[in-house]
Amino acid sequence: MLICINVTISDKQLSEEKDILDFIEDDYEGVIINCNSLPDASNLFAAALQSSLSYWKYMGKKGVWLRILKEQADLVPVALKARFCYHHAEPGYVMLTYWIPDGPCLLPSTGTHQIGVGAFVINNQEQVLVVKEKKGPSWCSGIWKIPTGFINKSEDIFSGAIREVKEETGIETSFLEVVAFRHAHQVIFDKSDILFICLLKPLTFDVSIDTTEIEDAMWMPLDEFLNQQVHKEDQLSGKIINICMNMFENNHRGFKVEQLTSKLDNQITHLYSLALEASPKEQSPESIR
């Protein structure tokens, strides 16, 4: 007589019976592999990776994130052979991903944009803080321009603008407003590029240049700055300077910055927006008079 017995194996038992890589679950039905517990030997890693992928598929997981440290570089070909894909690289590691379900991968892509800042700084004598760069595209060689640069990782837009001015010219400033931003595509490494133009208030006035990047810097009379050929011929440059001047003369409103906390990630963030004017009900009797 044939007797059938149904045996239920728990998920925990299944993971213990197989050689499953150490991992944690993310918030999107995916898994993040613990890079610090990867086997040193390529053959052991290959076997554990295949067992893990089978287990995660059984569990209904979707995306798999695999960080391989610099000292574990021998494991990268093994992961690629298992059909993992490159996602991004940083100093010290490379990130690979695997999409388990059939159909297109829905994992977010790596960073697609680089962020830069330009600082328009003008003093009470209507002199603009300008720099002449040592390096750059041939079209801007010898041109006096506003300080520009890329913001650092985990740096805010307003902080980046203040830092760039300080590094290039030695001038201390305070942030006033975001004047405008320019969005371009297929720039460095085919990434898109966003440049935020900021209006800053000078707090000091003695110029001291960074000779590694800047050939020269100075306070230039506004008329002389505007009469440069580049501002007459280039629509974008001319438009930006025009907006900056209207901001300086209080004929145009830009974006102020406000520090807020988000419950989505419990992080402090900065919101750039037009300053709201107080309604008649919110105004004091003195301000109404």
TrEMBL record:
GO terms for molecular function: ADP-ribose diphosphatase activity; metal ion binding; NAD binding; NADH pyrophosphatase activity. Residues 112-243 form the Nudix hydrolase domain. CDD domains: NUDIX_ASFGF2_Nudt6. Gene3D superfamilies: 3.40.630.30, Nucleoside Triphosphate Pyrophosphohydrolase. Keywords: Hydrolase, Metal-binding. Belongs to the Nudix hydrolase family. This is Nudix hydrolase. The lineage of its organism: Eukaryota, Viridiplantae, Streptophyta, Embryophyta, Tracheophyta.
